[in-house]
Amino acid sequence: MTTHRSHARSGHRRRYGNPRDLARMIARQLDPGRDAWQKPGAVVRALGLRRGDVVADVGAGPGYFTLRLARAVGPTGHVFGVDPEPVVLDVLRRRLAEARVANVTPVLGAAEDPLLPAGRCRLALTVDTYHHFDDGPAYLRRLRRALARGGRLAAIDFERRETPVGPPVEHRVARERFLADARRAGFALDREHRFLPYQYFVILRVVDD
């Protein structure tokens, strides 16, 4: 569900805040140049995943992180790739087939609910996605239900300042607001990574664990 600056005009947007030109959005998400600032290898290492883990990639899009997560958890692990756009999920399915990745389940989520099985995931990851949710705390509460005991929520999103890539500043959710929303949903900050140049990267735990 990632959006970037060229889709700033609301007239060129469709449901879930995505641009009408989904093909262009997908190409941009999979652009190899993204690796320089998104640092996907370092992100996945920082998640501390183990072989056999069950993970949710929420706002998976065409699978920029999904395939990397699938490799990290190995054939005994599993990844749920959640996105509310059927067209985008079709692209994800095609990429999974081409890569012969068998441990991913694409999930057609709803705007207000990831529609994940309860209590399954050791980790849920959202990348460049939170600003799409109409009611962020409510969505996080539903996402929390998908976590196993001791599970974590990892969130990466753009800082609320001008950057060379990313959505318009007015569409971004500041780190402080995201953490406040997460507290309302029953999460607390567990740790934070600061190696991404344009984004905050926080890992949260469930408060009543």
Polypeptide structure, described:
The chain is an alpha/beta fold. It has a single domain (5-206), classed as Vaccinia Virus protein VP39 (Rossmann fold). The chain is 29% helix and 24% strand. It is built from seven helices and seven strands, in the order H-H-H-E-H-E-H-E-E-H-E-H-E-E. The protein has helices at residues 22-29, 35-38, 40-46, 66-73, 86-99, 136-145, 175-184, and strands at 54-58, 78-83, 104-108, 121-127, 147-158, 187-193, 199-206. Strands 3-2-1-4-5-7-6 form a seven-stranded mixed sheet, with helices on both faces. Strand 2 (78-83), helix 5 (86-99) and strand 3 form a beta-alpha-beta unit. Helix 6 packs across helix 7 (175-184). The longest helix has 14 residues, at 86-99.
Return residue spans where pLDDT drops below 50 for at least 5 consecutive residues.
2-19
- Overall geometry comes to globular
* Helix coverage percent: 25-40%
What letter string, H or E per element, gives the SSE order?
HHHEHEHEEHEHEE
